[in-house]
Amino acid sequence: MTGSESLVRLADGTVKQVSPLTGTVVWTIPGRGGRPFAMPTEDRRVVDPETVNRLCSFCPERYVETPPEKERLVAGPDGPVLLERLPASRLSDTVAELRRVPNLFEILSVDYWRVNHGYVPSGDLLARASAYVAEPAGREQVLTLLARRAGATGLGAVWATESETEQLAQAIDLFAGTHDVVVARRHVVDGARFEDELAGSGTLTPDEHGAYLAFSVKAMAALYRSQPHARYVAVFQNWLRPAGASFDHLHKQLVAIDEYGPQTERELERLAVEPDVYTTAVLDHAAAHRLVIAENEHAIAVAGVGHRYPAIEVYSTSAHQLPWEHSDAEIRGFSDLLHAVHAATGAHVPTNEEWHHRPPSAEQPMPWHVVLKWRVSTLAGFEGGTKINVNTIDPFTLRDRVVTAIARLRGRGEVAMMAVGDECSHRRGVLKYTD
Ligand SMILES: [Zn+2]
């Protein structure tokens, strides 16, 4: 491939791609992409109504198995109600549509922030921790979780020799963490007959997905506020074990980190010289190659170019850049496209949903966007040796496949109204982030 062309189809049908942002090289060889992904499980377990709400630690009857909850959304007679900082004794009084809980096994621990950045938990957090463990139920939950964490990190023997006072002194770690998990209510879909009828992003209703996305955006803003040394909050959703999930129960993770990370750094460097690169190299390019999948007033979804895995990119077309600066309508528009893309993908396909936004302390404009990767192939020696990635589905095939599925779902009223495929405007300059 020569020059700046990032997407070429050769005479035999091979498609060669180069990512306009990262330079990743990807080839798709014809005849390798048609196989179905959804493999029926061989021995399916029938849903037992007695245990259906406690299939994993994220299920509604196992609320005490996560660290103390930060907030939850519950259904109320006049719409959803936010409940914050519930004591352990009240966790089971309501059913959470969505919960935000700390991750027990954080990527960056409270100690990391303490030792490397001089972080000191606020008086408010210390008061919350002591009030929580003052209740017998709260104390038991906290001690059980701290013991589990000590065991998993090889400190079980030390833990066993400590007095309860020493042990409880560590309780603050379960309240001051900045690696959160947003957990959706269902493990399996309503009325499921088998345990593999999992409730994923795409099986939610558009309203439920809208609430899930808005709740996650607010959680992200809350993490930036609560950890002053955070330079970036990474948001992602690993769906199914091949994609890195520990539980087959729908959840997103939000991780505050003290760097932007190399991917964002590279994009910021590019944006410094070419602020409109997302418009020219990504969206205009997608429109020119008919790779637009769906579009509404606030967002656009395209088949991504130059990804190791088949990837769909959803962009906010708003002038707002930071997710929490978007209006409710803009967040909902973004949610509707992301939901439709998930629904078109299907709950049996392992996926990584990766969020990208401008770090608040960076100057370069960057549009909020999410990349959904289908984890349907495994990298092998060829990729390692050549840095040429073989992806089984090229962007044109991916676009057609997802467009067909969304059109069908839209006809059944299972996704929101939106323009799909050829109905999209294919307008140039659709992003407003540089305005
Ligand atoms: Zn579960």
Can you characterise this structure?
This protein has 435 residues and is an alpha+beta fold. It has two domains: 7-38 and 197-423, HIT family, subunit A (2-Layer Sandwich), CATH 3.30.428; 60-181, no CATH class. The protein is built from eleven helices and 16 strands. It has helices at residues 110-117, 123-134, 136-152, 156-161, 164-169, 206-226, 262-273, 277-288, 328-345, 381-386, 395-411; strands at residues 7-9, 15-18, 25-28, 71-74, 81-84, 98-102, 179-184, 232-239, 251-257, 292-295, 299-303, 311-316, 351-356, 369-374, 388-390, 419-420. The chain has a twelve-stranded antiparallel beta sheet with strand order 5-4-6-7-9-8-13-14-12-11-10-16. Strand 4 and strand 5 (81-84) form a beta hairpin. The chain is globular and about 75 Å long. The model has no long low-confidence stretch (mean pLDDT 94). The structure holds zinc ion. The site of zinc ion (ZN) has 7 residues, from loops.
How would you concisely characterize the structure shown here?
By secondary structure, the chain is α+β, with helices and mostly antiparallel strands. It is built from eleven helices and 16 strands. Helix 9 crosses helix 11.
Average of per-residue pLDDT values: 94
Report the top-level CATH class of the largest domain: Alpha Beta
Q: Could you say what the CATH architecture of the largest domain is?
A: 2-Layer Sandwich
| Dominant shape | globular
